[in-house]
Each structure stands twice: as structure tokens, then as C-alpha cells.
Amino acid sequence: MTSHTTSQRVIRIGAGLVALLAAACSPETTMTADNTTATPSSALIDRARGIEAPMAEQRPVEIEQLGFTRIDEYQWIKDENWQQVMREPEVLDANIRALLDAENAYIDTVMEPTAALQERIFQEIRGRIKEDDSSVPERDGNYEYFSRYREGGQYPIYSRRPVDPVTGEANGDEEILIDGDAEAADFDYLDFGEVEHSPDHRYLAYAVDIRGSEYYEVRIKDIATGAIISTLTDESTGDFVWTNDSETLYWIWRDDNGRSSRVYRQPREGGVSELVYEEPDAGFFISIGLSDGENYVVINAGGHTSNEIRLIDANDSSAEPVLIAPRETNVEYYLTEAPDRFYFRTNLDGAVDFKIMAAPLDNPGRENWVDVIEHRPGVLVLDLIGFQDWQVRMERENALPRIVVREYATGAEHQIDFAEEAYSLGVSAGYEYAVDLIRFSYESPSTPEETYDYNMRTHERVLRKRQEVPSGHDPADYVVRRIMAPASDGAQIPVTILYHADTPIDGSAPLMLYGYGSYGITIPSGFRVTPLSLVDRGMVYAVAHIRGGMAGGYQWYLDGKLENKENTFSDFIAAGEALASQGYTSRGNIVAYGGSAGGLLVGAAINLQPDLFAGAIAAVPFVDVVNTMSDAELPLTPPEWPEWGNPIESAEDYQTMIAYSPYDQVREMAYPHVLATGGLTDPRVTYWEPTKWVARLRDRRTDDGLTLLRMNMGAGHGGASGRFDSLRETAMNWAFALMTVGLADGEVEEIAAEARQ
Fold first, then answer.
1. Which pLDDT band, with edges at 50, 70 and 90, does 87 fall under?
2. Which of 378, 459, 618, 715 is 20 to 30 A distant from 407 in Cα terms?
3. Terminal Cα-to-Cα distance of the chain (whole angstroms)
4. What share of the chain is helix, strand, coil (3-state, %, to 5)?
5. Is 596 known to be catalytic?
6. pLDDT in tens, 335-389
7. pTM given for the model
8. How many CB atoms lie within 10 A of CB 99?
9. Which candidate in 473, 717, 721, 745 is catalytic?
């Protein structure tokens, strides 16, 4: 269909829209006897129902597996040449491309009346972002390094300034190391991986991905001349480290299936790369870094529940890796360097929430580990950062983080205190080791991020930066609450809530419920400018800290994976029910929102309890669980069997997974309105997952609700790469959410009326 034809179709379908909108401009919400909101009819939704949606061709394939049979009528949407598509999107099968183009044309037509609303939301969010923002500089020797944006710029600028060696104060002009906007000028997509200067400050290494496929080039720049002196590879994960002589880099290779499987060592000027380590287990990822004192290159090979670490002398470019302790099933350990020993954060000996152990630098094998801080059930040790005289420990208890500082010499500890009901913390180690300062950040859903330098010896904290909201922001205009939602098995699920002080908490407000709930990832209770555009329009925004994350400790994670995965979905539903019963919203007036594994959550929740939700937004959703976990060639399949199960070998795992897999559990019933998004070059959740799910939903749903797909044809898992381009995707999501709860109609008419004047 040509753009001209599409435009004519929009005009014809949109005829009479203004009159329809006028009737729905200021509706009153009514409550039913079962605490379900009878949301007002939406002219925008009514109009969209009259637009013909694409119907993907069905080519049923019978799949037999472990004695079970399933039918997949949309398997053809997975391009047989998918590996090449990740690197060369132009080779996508013509029939598949035609379907994706049709889906994008359809959503454009459906959402066209909200174009001005989307632009308004986009400008609101953009107005909350300081366009020429910059990071707080981090000192390294005679320079301080920082990143910034220019006014209107989409990509970061990486810079440095000289500092006085005594006072540490800047005493020279900015030197731009990389201009991200200039780097991106010739590409539709650009993402930076690692960006690191050499220890002698003469060179800059940086990684770039220009397709969204997460295959990065590693480039080396001579800072003095600005010349690129070598490109080490275009097949890296984007992670690398320098050796201390500034002559060599270690980088990680990504294979044809997208897995990080080798570590190479290569001279700064390029030349022959030397294989240092190859991981034999397809279920393990490789990461690389430097120890706290920068004496060791640290290679970590691990899955979701076990790992092993190798060290290489960072002062010897010919050194071989030395194994610390061999991998054991369900045992994790992570290393922190101190002047006289190594410390290990580990769950060894059944320490579910982790404990701290130590061993000598010259003999760090497991037989020499001794307890330093014993396991404390319910107190999750999140991370350790080492300095010459100090160790900083991040912990979480009762779903709240904390920072604990320990002095090596005395063993004395103290905690940095905070006051709000819900908040988020971050800690930065910086470049320098022999210092008394750490940098931490603090924020809450209503409080913009504050960055402090904290003196571990004097306990003094100095505010270095407060996040600016150029369009204005008063935390007093917003209310933050934390409630506990009772789960079906009696567990108490923390839910963080943000709403405008003027929003009535009487059940009438619509609500967006966000969740993730996998891999142990805990969603922080931080400040985000994007939800404010919903909250300012009268929506409540809530985050459910469900099992599968680690809000309640490591056991919280174990209780939401493998055979316990259903807890993740029932917790999310329980959070929605609790929010409705306590008057923050009402049943049928909730928009579910989640991305990636959070998209799995959304898909499972609307299969289980569709009438709880008015709408659902599933961003790059992992919804075709059984098919994906049964394809060992896909990038994340073997590494993720410990998270989900292995349906290739285990009939029990197969049955567990197919019972909740959103794609497999789509049934003939009424569903909320659904918006799914995807990226053509996404190696994490491949493009065919949301496409197949949308096709099956649209075919089987028994109501006339919307099922929409937006496929980004030039990006991967993270969507558009520019900081403002990505906001346009958010603005579309928010416009869809407002449509589904009846809040968009009046504003669309208001904008149209303003345009007519």
C-alpha cells in the first residue's frame, strides 16, 4: 500500500471523528458492584475497531517433542537465515518483510489521530531532560573524565579536562575524545559499548554497534592526533580492558549465534589476536573487567546460578589465566581485591543471600576461604567495592537498598542512612583506589537523582549534582507509597506507587502497573521522567516487586523461576488486585506494562486474568517460550535453561513452561487491548516472537479489541538508539495507554480545537 493510499484511508476512516470525540470529551467514570470500572467508551478505540488489521497467513506445522505435540501455524515468520538478518537486515525474506511492513502501516493508521498527542507527550518528556546535561567528572591522575550532551544532541560526547595534581581542581579546557553525534551522522542506529582511555592517557578504546545486533567494533584512537590507529574487531560484545602498560587490550568475541564465548588478547595497533580463553559450555556467558586495585584482568564465565573466575596479571601481557575455583552447580562467587587478600561474595555452603569470605592473594583457592561476614537470611549482599583502606558493601533488606562502609584496619562498619519510604541507590568506585571518597546516587519516584561524594573517614557527604528538570518539578506535587500485596500463597509483595497529589484515591483513577520478575533483577524505586506524563494526567503509576526478582532477597528469586515461575505471574495479578481493593484504581482500569522478560509477564497475566486489565503493553516480549527454549542455536537459549528449564531434555520442564507460555496459552476469549513492540535485529528477543504472538492473539480473541505491533526495522532490543528518538517510542506507548483507559479522547479533541483556532 502506498503512502498516498494510506493517507486517503485515514481520512475516510476518520470522518466524523471530531463529533464522536465531542461526545466522549468529559465522561464520568462509574463503578460497578465488583469494584470494576466501567470505563467510558472511547471514540478513538471505536474508530480503530473499524480499521482492517493484517491477518498473517497460517501455515500449520506439527511439532513433536518428548511425547508431546503442539501446532505452530506461524513458524514460517522465523526467517531460516535469521543469523544473517541480524547483521544484514536487507536479506529478510520478502514475505516476512511484507507482513512487518503491513503491521507498521496498520498501527500508523490506528494511532494517527493521536499524532499530536504523542508529540505533546514527547515534548513534555523532552522538556524534563536537561539537553546539555553532563556527568559529574571522575578524576584519574592528572585528568578528569566526563560525558555530556549538547543542546539538541542525540548521542553522548566523551571528554576530559586536565586537573591540578595537588588540589584536583580543573585547570584547563575540555578535550573532546568522541563526539557521539558526529559518529552517528552516517548511521540510523548507533550504540556505544565500553569507552575507556588507556592507563597512560594517550589512547582511547571504544566499541560501537551500528545495527542494534550487539556486534561491536572495537576502535583505538590516538588522542593527540584524533586518528583511528586500529580497529581490533567487529565481532565483540562491546566489552574490553586495557593492560597496565597501555600496549594491549583483552576483548570478548561473540560467535555466529550471538554468544560471548572467547577472550582474545591483541596489541593496541591491531595485528594478530591471541586466544586467551574459550568457554566450552554454551550455557555460560563470559564477562571481563579489572580488579579493584587494577592488578588483575578478571575473566568471569558463568550461567545464571554458577560461575568461575580466572585472573591474568594486568602488568604482564604474556601472562596466562589462573583459575581461582572451579565451577560447581548452583555456587556463585565474585571477587574483590584488597591490598593483602581477596574477598569473595558467595552463596557457598547454602548462604542463600550470600556471605563474605576471604583468602590470601598468593593462595586464593577455595580451600583457603574463611568467613568474614556470615550469612544473614533476608539480608542480600548485592555487591562489594574495594579501596586501599575501605570496603563498600551494597545490601538489600525488606526491599530497600543500603550502603555499608567497612574499614579494613579496624573492622568497624557504618551505614549511610536515608529517609523515604521507597528509594534507589547507586555507588560508583571511580578510577582511583587509594582514596577515602566514594560517589553514590540517591533518588526516589518523586525525588530527582542526587549525586554525592562521601568521605568514608569523616562521614561527610557533599552534593555534587542534582538532576535538573528544566520544565519544572516539585516533589511535593507527588505522593510515593509502598504497600504490601498479599499473594495467593501468603507472601507479601512490595508495590511502589506514584501518583499526583490531586489524584483521588477512591478507585476511579486508571493505573499503569509495571513489572519484570526474572533473572533476579530488581526494579529500583528511582526517579523517571517518563511516567510523569501519565501521572500528571491522573493515572497512578505502580511497580510490582514480584518474585523472580530479588526485592525480598535471593530466595525471592528462587521462588520465581523454573518450577516456581507461576509465582511471578500470580504476584503481578495480586498486586493489581490489591491496588484495586485499596482504591488506587479498580479492576478493568489497569494497563499492564513490561519489556523483554517483563513482556512474558504481561502476556501470561492477560492470559490468566484478562478482565483485570484495560490494556497491555509488551515491549520486545519474550512470549514464545517453548519454541525459543527448544532452539539451542538461538543466542540466549543454552545460557537460560537454568532460568526457565530445558524442554529439549525434560518433560517436566516442557509441561511447566507450556502451561504459562503466552504464545502457547492464547485462547479463544476476550482480551484487553494489546500493543507489542519488537526490533528486527534484536538478538535477545527475536523479531518473530512478538510478531507470531500478535498474529495468534488477533486470530483467536473473541472480542473486537485492538492488537497492535510496532516493529522497529532498524534497531534491536533497546529500540531506537538516539535519546530523543527513544522518547518518541515511549510517547506512542503512553498514547496507547491513555486510549485504553479513556483519557486520550478529550485531549485529542482539545488539541484539534486549538489547531482550528
1. confident
2. 378
3. 34
4. 25, 30, 40
5. yes
6. 999 999 999 999 999 999 999 999 999 999 999 999 999 999 999 999 999 999 9
7. 0.85
8. 22
9. 717
**Cβ(594)–Cβ(602) under 8 Å?**
yes
CA 231 to chain centre: 29
Report the phi/psi class of residue 485: left, alpha or beta, with left for phi > 0 and alpha for psi in -120 to 50: beta
How many alpha carbons lie under 13 Å from residue 212 in its C-beta half-sphere?
A: 25
Contacts of 749 (CB under 8 A, 6+ apart): 18, 21, 22, 25
- As beta bridge partners, residue 494 has 484
Beta bridge partners of 381: 395
Catalytic pick among 191, 353, 682, 745: 682
Q: Indicate the residue type of 277.
A: Y
| Residue 151 exposed, middle or buried by CB count within 10 Å (0-12, 13-18, 19+) | exposed
Given a cut of 70, whether residue 173 has pLDDT beyond it is yes
Distance CA 312, CA 318 (A): 9
| Alpha-carbon distance values, 86 to 63, 211, 681 (Å) | 26, 8, 5
Q: State yes or no: is 473 an active-site residue.
A: no
Q: How far is CA 513 from CA 25, 156, 399, 424, 618, in A?
A: 25, 31, 18, 19, 12
Return the C-alpha cell found at 377: 537470611
Asked if 286 and 258 count as a contact pair (C-beta separation under 8 A), the reply is no
Q: What is the pLDDT of residues 178-205, one digit of tens each?
A: 999 999 998 888 899 999 999 999 999 9
Catalytic pick from 596, 630, 661, 721?
596
- 104-123 confidence digits (pLDDT tens): 999 999 999 999 999 999 99
Q: How far apart are CA 269 and CA 207, in angstroms?
A: 15
> What backbone torsions phi and psi does residue 513 show, to the nearest 5 degrees?
-110, 115
DSSP label at residue 469: -
Q: Whose CA is closest to 715, among 227, 211, 230, 262? A: 211
CB 634 within 8 A of CB 283: no
Q: Distances from the Cα of 35 to the Cαs of 38, 505, 577, 588, 681, in angstroms?
A: 9, 13, 10, 9, 43
**Sheet hosting strand 333-337, strand order edge to edge:** 333-337, 341-346, 355-360, 370-373
